[in-house]
What does this fold into?
Amino acid sequence: MADYDLVVVGAGPAGAVAAATAARGGLRVALLEKRRLPRHKPCGGGMPVPVQRELLGLVPEAVIDTRVRCMRHSWCFREAVEAPIDPPGTPAARSRALWMVQRPRFDQALVQRAVAAGATLLESHAFKALQPTAAGVELRVDRGMAADRGAAPATLRARHVIGADGAAGGVAASVGLRSSPRVALAIELEVPHRWDPADPLLRPDRLHLDYGVLRRGYAWVFPKADHLNIGAGVFHARHRDVRRDPGARQRIRAAIEAYAAALGVDPSRLAGLRAHAHPLPFWDGPEPLHSPDGRVLLVGDAAGLINPLFGDGLFHAIRSGRLAAEALLAGDPCSHTARVHDELASDFEAARRLARIFYGLPGLTYRYGISRPASTAVAVRLLGGEIPFRGLGRRALRRIGRGLLGEARRALPHT
Ligand SMILES: Cc1cc2nc3c(=O)[nH]c(=O)nc-3n(C[C@H](O)[C@H](O)[C@H](O)COP(=O)(O)OP(=O)(O)OC[C@H]3O[C@@H](n4cnc5c(N)ncnc54)[C@H](O)[C@@H]3O)c2cc1C
It folds into this structure.
């Protein structure tokens, strides 16, 4: 007899939603987390409003730090354009203002929902290895990594395992899945901040994005209640795993410092702050997301579900967590890969095509795409899955072509 119907490894958003959905459906669930909660996770914490549908009734006010109503885009901190997310007069209930959350609080709220639904939370329990058995899977677990050092590994038995252990987790590798992931790298700095209504640039409802300061990536400044989340990432690099690019960290860190300075943040405020670096496993085409016997399913970052254009992963982590639990509740674990591909991946392919254009020709994309007033609202609807990426690559190339042609015509001497 298995200890559990399901062990979910990793209590991030993907794991917490998977555990809550499965427990609500009547499964005996353990939610395993190697760290003590709440824990820090390097992340901008920005999300589109439609994520609310997936949050198991969580009240937004309980987790939202700030709502972003406009975006300020720039190219090497110049040519700045600002655009609102909603058209003027949009009622609050219809607003697409982006959610800004702080991950420790957001993740903790989701874990509490899983526990309230009946899941058993095992904190400070690190997954080490797994072994198939006739009835399911045996997991070897190290208990009490921090508090209880030296404790003997425990063994848990389960019919199924959901690998929600993030970008650097080990569940996928233990069953031979995702052997060569494409990995981007981002760094964030949390700079304590007091909002000054007289500041012309920094506002709690405005986020900043710069596309020229870092090759093959971008930099951001996200507003939080008590700090600025300043970050940057190399997303579409020539290295399959950006962590192997020896200069990447330094370039990213330099972009963050330059952004802070460009927005008038005194460099002394950055001194001594800890920079958090973290890999982002970008979507890199369809691949199996469950073991052939259906015992192990992957979700979230562990499944490589980072959008290849924007680099966001929270919405997809949460959706894939729900999908994996639903496949188990339906008694059809081997449908997991197809369910994820149907719901998320077909559009990721189009996003990947657009990413090649965007990161390959960033200056032109900025000039003829991003800086157009309508682009901000389109980007927010893409983020929330309200409109598809399909067709956008061709349109972007046509627009760049038309723009260049117009410039050439203007440059030609009139005869
Ligand atoms: C700098 C940065 C900024 C980002 N900004 C955004 C953003 O603004 N918006 C957005 O949508 N996405 C953003 N992302 C991506 C987003 O953070 C991830 O997509 C998201 O966290 C994925 O959730 P997850 O539940 O799959 O994994 P995680 O949130 O990584 O959770 C995995 C959990 O598994 C645990 N774990 C790992 N190994 C083990 C083990 N062996 N045993 C037990 N537990 C284990 C970890 O401790 C962790 O709690 C950003 C990423 C980075 C790096």
